[in-house]
């Protein structure tokens, strides 16, 4: 979308033309101080510009609530409590982001979905494998095999003979991307080939922020965000073309003022990384955080966590306490909890 289509004061429009800042995407890529320094506009003019650009992006989501309500299928997590929160799981046709601090259980969700997608549609899957792209840590292969061994326990709603017939480990395709160039090659070549052959119907990127934070300095914000938009555009095209859910796991950054935390839960002291440029590419934003307490079930215990919906066109802004068990992530309903 072009900046000329925004309803702006002529002074602001003239400043944008002078510095050749033409697209709305370029505006949302920049921070307020950078825009002020680049255009020479006042703080109030810059705030007007950012507000108008963000509103324009929100008016053009990759998929609408109406589309979701008319049968756009997705991938369930396999836990009825969490699937109710997400109204059936991850939707197709857009990017779902899961953000949170280290140790909150984000990778558990990615692994769980990589197995759930392999079930037939009547059991909440898409009947194909998953492409799991690692950008920072090594792939947790031991935990994947543990989850596979516990699928009968997690998916008690599925006939055991069907669970045992699925060769889960053969259909999780693992890629490691050490830099942005290799990540882009992975998505444009490897992912496209797997999707075109029907071998995968889920893409997981773990994590999206790692490479963008590592490869750019503070002064390189414009180039960084242009690369970010190229990356998100590639994911959108793959998701739309092949009706494929995309999960991007994201890191977080500290929030020093609650008045500036519009991109995360109002009670949180952290916000998803990569700012407004990335937020406007995401259809569904989820966040996970650890709570003060433990939850006990039989001989197992787990740190208590919370999965929250920050925004989505088809979901209420709500949350659910969760715990990580041997068989995977589950919502906490009736087990004994011991909060500190």
Describe the overall structure.
It is a single chain. This protein has 340 residues and is of the alpha/beta class. The protein folds into two domains: 3-57, DNA polymerase, domain 1, CATH 1.10.150; 66-339, 3-Layer(aba) Sandwich (Rossmann fold). It is 39% helix and 24% strand. It has 14 helices and 14 strands. Strands 3, 4, 5, 6, 7, 10, 11, 12, 13 and 14 form a ten-stranded mixed beta sheet that branches. A two-stranded antiparallel ribbon has the order 1-2. A hairpin with a 2-residue loop joins β12 and β13. α3 (32-39) packs across α4 (43-58) and α11 packs parallel to α13. It starts with 9 loop residues before the first helix and ends with a strand.
Short description:
With about 350 residues, the chain is an alpha/beta fold. It has helices at about 10-20, 25-30, 30-40, 45-60, 65-70, 80-85, 105-115, 140-150, 150-155, 160-165, 180-195, 210-215, 220-240, 275-280, and strands spanning about 75, 90, 95-100, 130-135, 170-175, 200-205, 245-250, 250-255, 270, 285-295, 300-310, 320-325, 330, 335-340. Belongs to the RecA family. RAD51 subfamily.
Walk me through the topology:
Elements: H1 10-18, H2 24-29, H3 32-39, H4 43-58, H5 65-69, E1 74-75, H6 80-85, E2 90-91, E3 95-100, H7 106-116, E4 129-134, H8 141-149, H9 151-154, H10 160-165, E5 172-176, H11 180-196, E6 200-206, H12 209-215, H13 221-242, E7 246-250, E8 252-254, E9 270-272, H14 275-279, E10 284-297, E11 300-311, E12 319-325, E13 328-331, E14 336-339
Parallel strand pairs: 3-7, 3-10, 4-5, 4-6, 6-7
Antiparallel strand pairs: 1-2, 8-9, 10-11, 10-14, 11-12, 12-13
